[in-house]
From TrEMBL:
<feature type="domain" description="DUF4342">
    <location>
        <begin position="47"/>
        <end position="121"/>
    </location>
</feature>
<protein>
    <recommendedName>
        <fullName>DUF4342 domain-containing protein</fullName>
    </recommendedName>
</protein>
<dbReference type="Pfam" id="PF14242">
    <property type="entry name" value="DUF4342"/>
</dbReference>
<feature type="region of interest" description="Disordered">
    <location>
        <begin position="151"/>
        <end position="178"/>
    </location>
</feature>
<dbReference type="InterPro" id="IPR009060">
    <property type="entry name" value="UBA-like_sf"/>
</dbReference>
<dbReference type="InterPro" id="IPR025642">
    <property type="entry name" value="DUF4342"/>
</dbReference>
């Protein structure tokens, strides 16, 4: 049988192999498209459905592994070194996804009430959210002060100076016109 581009495309569409693999398989199967598809499926270890099932099982295993790791990693809320709340990070993440404003409000309330928020990883490492938050706030304050100094070098901002200069220029133009 003749091997042409239509047959190669048909084999590629059904099996996802390259042009070269499709042409070689067609040559081995005498140019018959159906036999070629069956040949490639058997060569690759199963049908398209089998491959999809294998892939979905791999994805489910990964999700289970992530959830297991997320359940081991915990968010602890402490006040006076006593654990007030201890929840898996997975539950915290789900809560944050379902209602971000409530999650932010809860975190702000915990920080304002001088509670310590810690993330305890499965290997025992502790991440102090309070310190991270303090560093972030310090960075924002530094940036605000930097811009404030930039726009107010001598007690007034550059915008105000520019406005004053424009205003005085306008008066001098009016004086010249008269």
């Amino acid at each position: 049988m003749e091997i042409n581009l239509e047959k190669v495309d048909a084999v590629r569409d059904r099996t996802g192999v390259s042009y070269k693999e499709a042409k070689e398989a067609l040559e081995k199967c005498g140019g018959d498209v159906i036999d070629t598809i069956i040949y490639i499926e058997e060569k690759n270890g199963g049908t398209w459905g089998d491959n999809l099932s294998d892939k979905s099982n791999e994805v489910m295993d990964k999700v289970k592994e992530i959830l297991k790791k997320g359940n081991v990693t915990r968010i602890q809320l402490k006040r006076n070194n006593e654990i007030v709340m201890n929840i898996p990070i997975t539950a915290g993440a789900i809560g944050a996804i379902i209602s971000p404003p409530i999650a932010v409000l809860g975190l702000a309330t915990a920080l304002a009430s001088k509670c310590r928020v810690e993330i305890v990883k499965d290997d025992g490492e502790v991440i102090d959210v309070n310190e991270m938050t303090k560093e972030s706030i310090d960075n924002v304050v530094d940036k605000v002060n930097e811009y404030k100094d930039k726009f107010e070098p001598n007690g007034s901002s550059e915008f105000e100076k520019k406005d004053e200069n424009d205003f005085s220029n306008e008066f001098s133009k009016e004086d010249q016109d008269k």
